[in-house]
Design goal:
single chain; mainly alpha; 2 strands; elongated
Length: 421
Amino acid sequence: MDIIANYGTTLVLVAALFGFLMAWGIGANDVANAMGTSVGTKSLTIRQAIIIAMIFEFAGAYLAGGEVTATIRNGIIDSNAFVDSPDLLVLGMIASLLAAGAWLILASYFGWPVSTTHSIIGAIVGFAVVSIGPEAVQWSKFGGIVGSWVITPAISGVIAYFMFISVQKLIFNTDDPLNNAKRYVPFYMFLTSLVICLVTIKKGLTHVGLHLSDGEGILLSIAISIAVAFAGWIYIRGQKYNPQDDSKMHFANVEKVFGILMVITACAMAFAHGSNDVANAIGPLSAVASIVASGGEISGQAAIAWWILPLGGIGIVIGLATMGEKVMATVGTGITHLTPSRGFAAQLATAATVVIASGTGLPISTTQTLVGAVMGVGLARGIAALNLGVLRNIVVSWIITLPAGAILAIAIFYVLQACFS
């Protein structure tokens, strides 16, 4: 308690600095996932992807990031264990922000797409074990986290595989791909719009006063999607193509349509990501600010001060602009060769898996979901279409994220204790 009383302002300023660093790491790593397939398929240039992601990520973080946030993400540790020693929780949260942020920036430098959620969870568990003891950790939660390494990539991979196979059979592997595209693309537009609406309502608009029941959300999503499919049908019918063009030109025209769909899906995912994963940076920061402001009182949720959401949003944007290119390259071109139709299948499968996870409470990493979807699309063309060396590095980086966050947090926690004791 003496540490909070004597160094309260300093602690908040240090937490703000490390929270900004964590947001920077989120932008450099996770945001690049949302735009990686669009860049890999050349539907967007890197500059265009960065500008679009900056707009939608910041909008998601600032407009829909929430008025309150859980002080301890995913309930991975028991806050009651720190009631008698809130100074340990404050120092631990600060250590966790720096540890997770540093790991994310290191992973981004090497182009490894890792989970920001798992980074902060590993860090929080690390400081909790050395400060209070193993009993402070809800170890039962770990089963779901470790299981998500397999389950979520598998779900998105299966969805992407069958989505791409359907596009191949209904459109590309036919005698008249252009006319079949006019027939079936409105259906894919309906699916895309439906998933986007569900993602946005479920993950992006829960904090802005739009409180719809599940049934109302589904009905609204269906209505909007029917309108989008009808508009898409009119647009495609109105396009003039030369029937004398060879099959390559027909394929190119069809790919353009899927490229547009993929960019739209990526924008929605960026908005949903900004509204959700900014909590990985501002949750611990809000916890520190709340505990210091209350003189050491710990609550399950913390009100977000006016300056915290913009700080997180700006950090995400700067991280993407300065370091997002390498992770984009890994996801977009490193795993398998992507065309707009393949990238569309991967993006839509990722968004669909997010919807499934939201409805079932399945712990999910957007990063692992997208990588699984890209793998699924690659497998649709055979195992030889996958770069197994890149995949091996990605899986290893997933496995070491939790212990890396924990080890870094423990070291930083001891340093902070020495500085403030």
